[in-house]
C-alpha cells in the first residue's frame, strides 16, 4: 500500500485514541478494523511510532495530569500493537500451535486472539494440559469464529469450565473448517453439553468430537443424542466417563438407530447397567455403520453380555468391541462364545477383568478354534487357571494349523498358574492325542 494512503489512516487512528480518552471510553475493549490494524502494524517500529506521535495534531490539556493520561493511553496502545505484531510473526512460522496465553494477562489473550483469525499456516491447535482456563478458551473461541484453516483442536484437561465451553460451542456454530475437536476432562456439565449439542446440530464439518471425562450426566447425554439424530458428519464420538446412566444410554441408543454416519463410539465408565446395555444392544442390531464400540466398566453383568451377544449374531459391521470390567462371568462369556460362532466380522474383542472362570474360557477357546476372523482377544485378570490357559493354547495352535490365521491372545500367563511355554507344550500333546484317536489303525 502506498505511503500517502497509510498516513491518513494513521492520523485517524491517532485521533481516535485521543477522542476515546477525552470521552472516557474504554479503549481496551474496542476492536479496530482488521485492515487498518494490519497496516498499522507495518509502521510499528520504534522510529515510526515516534514519527506517528510527532505527526498527530497538537492538543492543549487543561492540566499536566490530563496530558500524562493521554501519553499513558497512547503508550499502552503502542505496547499492545507491538504485542499483537509479535503474535502475528510467531504464528506465521507455525503449522501447529502449542502455546496459548492463560487467563492471567488480558493483553496477551486479546493479542493472540486477534492475530490467529487471519493466520493461514496453522492447521492444528494442540494445547492439551496447558490449563488455559475459561478466559483463554473464550479468547481462542473468538479467533475460531473467523479462522478458516484450523482443522484440529485438542483442549484436553484445560479447565475451560462453563463459560469457556459455551464460547467454544458458539464458535463451532460459525466455523466451517474444524474437523476434529477434543474437549475431554474440562469440567463440562449438562448445561454446557446442551450448548455443544446445539452447535453440533448446526455444524456440518466436524467429524470427530471427544467429550470424555466430563460430567454431562443423563440430561447432557440426551441433548447430545438429539444432536446425533440430526448431525450427518460426525463419524467418531467419545462420551466415556460422563455418568450418563441407564437413561442417558437409552437416549444414545435411540440416536444410533437413526444415525447413519457414526462408525466409532466410546461409552465406557458411564454406569449404564444391564438395562442401558440392552437398549444399546437393540440399537446395534439395526445400526449398520458402527465398526468400533467401547462399553467397558459399565456394570452390565451377564444379562447385559447376553444382550450384546444376541446383537452380535445379527450385526455385520462391528469389528472391534471392548467389554472389559463388566462382571459378565462365565454365563456371559458362554453367550458371547455362542454368538462368535456365527459372527464373521469381529476381529478384536476385549474381555479383561470379567470374573470368567475356566468353564467360560474353555467355551470361548472352542469358538476361537473355528472362528478365523478374530485376530485379537484380551482375557487377562480372569482367574481361569491352567485349564483355561491350555484350552487357549490349543486354540492358538489349531488356528495356525487349520487356517494359517494368527490368533493373538493378550493375558498375563503367570495369572493362570502355568507359563505360556508349558501351556503350549501341553496343548500340543493334547492335539496329538486327539489326532491319534481319530486315525484308523488298520495294519
TrEMBL record:
SUPFAM superfamilies: RNI-like. Gene3D superfamilies: Ribonuclease Inhibitor (3.80.10.10). It comes from the Bacteria. This is Uncharacterized protein.
Amino acid at each position: 500500500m502506498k505511503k500517502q494512503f497509510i498516513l491518513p489512516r494513521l492520523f485517524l487512528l491517532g485521533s481516535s485514541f485521543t477522542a476515546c480518552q477525552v470521552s472516557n471510553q474504554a479503549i481496551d475493549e474496542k476492536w479496530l478494523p482488521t485492515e487498518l490494524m494490519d497496516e498499522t502494524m507495518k509502521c510499528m517500529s520504534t522510529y515510526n511510532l515516534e514519527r506517528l506521535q510527532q505527526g498527530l495534531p497538537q492538543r492543549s490539556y487543561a492540566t499536566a495530569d490530563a496530558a500524562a493520561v493521554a501519553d499513558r493511553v497512547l503508550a499502552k496502545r503502542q505496547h499492545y500493537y507491538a504485542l499483537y505484531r509479535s503474535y502475528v510473526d510467531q504464528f506465521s512460522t507455525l503449522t501447529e500451535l502449542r502455546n496459548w496465553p492463560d487467563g492471567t494477562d488480558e493483553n496477551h489473550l486479546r493479542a493472540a486472539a486477534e492475530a490467529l483469525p487471519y493466520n493461514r499456516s496453522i492447521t492444528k491447535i494442540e494445547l492439551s494440559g496447558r490449563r488455559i482456563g475459561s478466559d483463554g478458551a473464550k479468547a481462542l473461541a473468538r479467533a475460531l469464529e473467523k479462522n478458516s484453516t484450523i482443522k484440529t483442536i485438542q483442549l484436553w484437561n484445560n479447565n475451560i469450565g462453563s463459560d469457556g465451553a459455551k464460547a467454544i460451542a458458539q464458535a463451532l456454530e460459525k466455523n466451517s473448517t474444524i474437523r476434529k475437536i477434543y474437549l475431554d476432562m474440562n469440567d463440562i456439565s449438562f448445561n454446557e453439553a446442551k450448548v455443544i449439542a446445539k452447535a453440533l446440530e448446526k455444524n456440518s464439518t466436524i467429524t470427530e468430537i471427544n467429550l470424555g471425562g466430563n460430567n454431562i450426566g443423563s440430561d447432557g447425554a440426551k441433548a447430545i443424542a438429539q444432536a446425533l439424530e440430526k448431525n450427518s458428519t460426525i463419524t467418531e464420538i467419545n462420551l466415556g466417563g460422563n455418568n450418563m446412566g441407564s437413561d442417558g444410554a437409552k437416549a444414545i441408543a435411540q440416536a444410533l438407530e437413526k444415525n447413519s454416519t457414526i462408525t466409532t463410539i466410546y461409552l465406557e465408565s458411564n454406569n449404564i447397567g444391564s438395562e442401558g446395555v440392552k437398549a444399546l444392544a437393540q440399537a446395534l442390531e439395526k445400526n449398520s455403520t458402527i465398526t468400533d464400540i467401547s462399553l467397558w466398566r459399565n456394570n452390565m453383568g451377564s444379562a447385559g453380555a447376553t444382550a450384546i451377544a444376541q446383537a452380535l449374531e445379527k450385526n455385520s459391521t462391528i469389528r472391534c468391541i471392548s467389554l472389559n470390567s463388566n462382571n459378565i462371568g462365565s454365563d456371559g462369556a458362554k453367550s458371547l462364545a455362542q454368538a462368535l460362532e456365527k459372527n464373521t466380522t469381529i476381529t478384536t474383542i476385549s474381555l479383561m477383568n470379567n470374573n470368567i472362570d475356566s468353564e467360560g474360557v474353555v467355551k470361548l477357546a472352542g469358538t476361537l478354534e473355528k472362528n478365523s476372523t478374530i485376530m485379537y482377544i484380551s482375557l487377562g485378570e480372569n482367574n481361569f487357571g491352567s485349564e483355561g490357559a491350555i484350552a487357549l493354547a490349543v486354540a492358538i495352535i489349531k488356528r495356525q494349523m487349520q487356517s494359517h490365521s494368527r490368533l493373538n491372545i493378550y493375558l498375563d500367563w503367570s495369572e493362570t498358574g502355568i507359563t505360556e511355554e508349558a501351556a503350549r507344550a501341553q496343548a500340543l500333546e493334547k492335539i496329538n492325542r486327539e489326532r491319534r484317536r481319530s486315525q484308523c489303525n488298520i495294519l
